[in-house]
What we know:
Elements: E1 2-9, H1 16-28, E2 33-38, H2 53-64, E3 70-72, H3 75-79, H4 85-96, E4 100-107, H5 120-126, E5 128-133, H6 139-152, E6 158-162, H7 170-178, H8 189-198, H9 204-215, H10 218-238, H11 242-251, H12 263-275, H13 280-287, H14 298-309, H15 318-324, H16 329-346, H17 354-367
Parallel strand pairs: 1-2, 1-4, 2-3, 4-5, 5-6
Amino acid sequence: MKRIGVFGGSFDPIHYGHLILAAQVKELSGLDKVIFMPAYVSPFKVDAPPASGPARLKMIELALNGLEGFEVSDLEINKEGPSYTFDTLDELRRQMGDDVKLVFLLGSDNLKSILKWKKSEELINDFGLIAVCRKGEDKSVIDRCVAEIREKYPKADIQLFETPELEISSGEIRDKLKFGQDITFLTPDSVIRYIDEEKLYDSLTRRLGLFVRSNVKPSRFAHTLRVIKKCREYGARYGADMEKLETAAIFHDAYRDAGNLEHGPLAAEHMEKDFGVTDPEILEAVRYHTTGCAGLGKTGMVLKLADTLEDGRPFKEAPILRARMTDDLEESLLILMERLKAYVESAGDNRFDKNSQEFMDWLKERTAGRNT
């Protein structure tokens, strides 16, 4: 009897981690074939709309092209709705015949709840299970789950398998695509070409990021990505609009070579003219990220803080200033601006920018009477 593995997931997009895992499971578990089964994913998912079912199916086909012993099935995608694992495997078994033993690949964390799945008894008794353990997972917990399943269903065919050392996630790839980063070596070139040709995962931040990556030095782009990371940290802390914040952050240094005080206004101008960005808070944040200004909105304030204190900044007081940041955004910025002014004056330059001075005075008025 042939043993065929069924590898389910969203594969949004498929990557080398999926391929390596499938290849190792196939070899070490003695499977004759592995079938990739992309799941239906609601196109109305608000937080991160997925690639369409046909697009995910095509990317898997491209990734598997020329690989013997691997196939893709459109069974779940064509149902256009959530599917229960047993129903999917049962339908696949009917299609393939009785001389096939289907083995379902699942994350080992699912073993904790599998006894509550629909038709769990039939699923466990009729099909094999290969549970993939992630690095760092408590093996004793998984062993207890397996023992519990086998006690209830003695016929259970369960194998445990550890993930390969290479750890890649579809979410990581989507995040890189979101900001125009390179995903070479994370997924096959054929998949990358398809993503580019079909403009999958397209977004404003991706278009902005691709422009920035092509027009600034690698060190400047690396700084930009660190600013985005710090924006996420501070944005969560201070309750900023993350979409606006990330949009401003990816483009804030797009024209850095224009000059220290000139590049912010120039970037805001091109952001509006070339990319159609009209949100006044985003444009203000980009325009004044270097100097600040009186009345600066939350997006601009968080960007100013993140740009100055991103983790790659080399000035020696950066760790001290990061530690001094409080849960009050305006107080934190006042601490920062006072330090920046002292630095400018210590360097023998008394020309502290007018906008920066007005920003600092405004912050003092806003925080008067608070604990600093």
